[in-house]
Amino acid sequence: MPRSAPLFQTSSLRRYAAMAVAMALQWVAVSAWAQAQSGAELQKVAQNWLHAAVANAQPEALRMEVSVGAVDGRLKLAPCANVDAYLPVGSRLWGKTRVGLRCIDGMARWNVSVPATITALGNAWVVKGHVPAGAVLRESDVVESEVDWAEEVSPVLQDRSAWLGQVATRLLTTGQTLRQGMVKPAQVFQAGTQVRVVAQGVGFQISGDGQALSAGVLGQSARVRMENGRVASGVVLDSHTVKIDL
């Protein structure tokens, strides 16, 4: 007849089993809390921080909106009592960016980031038809509309003077927001063209004729040969005038 296990051994096994169950339940609870923290709670931390950061830097003419993505669900993050949000090096409070999250008070120090999008809504000039490369932009080519300034990195051409009379650097299509790099100053005369040279000094101004030695682009420098043979550089004012400051 088999002998039964000693009473003290049975009791020890029961205590061990109870401890194992308690530890397992504790591990499950901690894991569940860490999982919740790495999801909705961390996303909320990033969202609150980003709202405050954008509010402090918001331009007056723009209406800012933010959205934050979720932490990578494959990450296993240890519980943390204090999570610090920050802007990682190379990221900006503009367009598609990232928000960093780091544990500064927990069982383990971890550092992750979440994707975020900052939208900057404001009025800008939008192309309302097709403008071929090399064509001069006119009032009839654009319309003012509300757009997301942060949709692209290139700055928006807010002032009318920044694009009116400028030349399209590439094909512009309907719905495009006018931004830097899309237009350039127009060339108004070729090298060899006879131009009027206006020389201006303190309290006086003289003018004479000259010959352009380089192409003339509005607002940029061009070289001209004066009637006396002297060569000088000046700013192109229009299709037939170069201004020289003495």
Low-confidence stretches are 1-36
Q: Considering DSSP H and I runs of 4 or more, what fraction of the residues is helical?
A: 10-25%
> What value does the average pLDDT take?
84
Counting H and I runs of at least 4 residues, what is the number of helices?
1
CA radius of gyration is 34 Å
Secondary-structure element series = HEEEEEEEEEEEEEE
Tell me the span between the first and last alpha carbons.
123 Å
Strand content: 35-45%
Shape: elongated
- What's the number of domains? 3
* Sheet with most strands: 5 strands, antiparallel
The total count of strands amounts to 14
Strand pairing plus helix content: what structural class? alpha+beta
Please characterize this protein's 3D structure.
This protein has 246 residues and is α+β, with helices and mostly antiparallel strands. The protein is built from 1 helix and 14 strands. It has one helix spanning 7-57; strands at 63-68, 80-86, 95-106, 111-127, 142-148, 167-168, 183-184, 187-189, 194-201, 204-212, 216-217, 221-226, 231-238, 241-245. A hairpin with an 8-residue loop joins strand 2 (80-86) and strand 3 (95-106). It is elongated and about 85 Å long. The protein starts with 6 loop residues before the first helix and ends with a strand. The model is unreliable at 1-36 (pLDDT under 50).
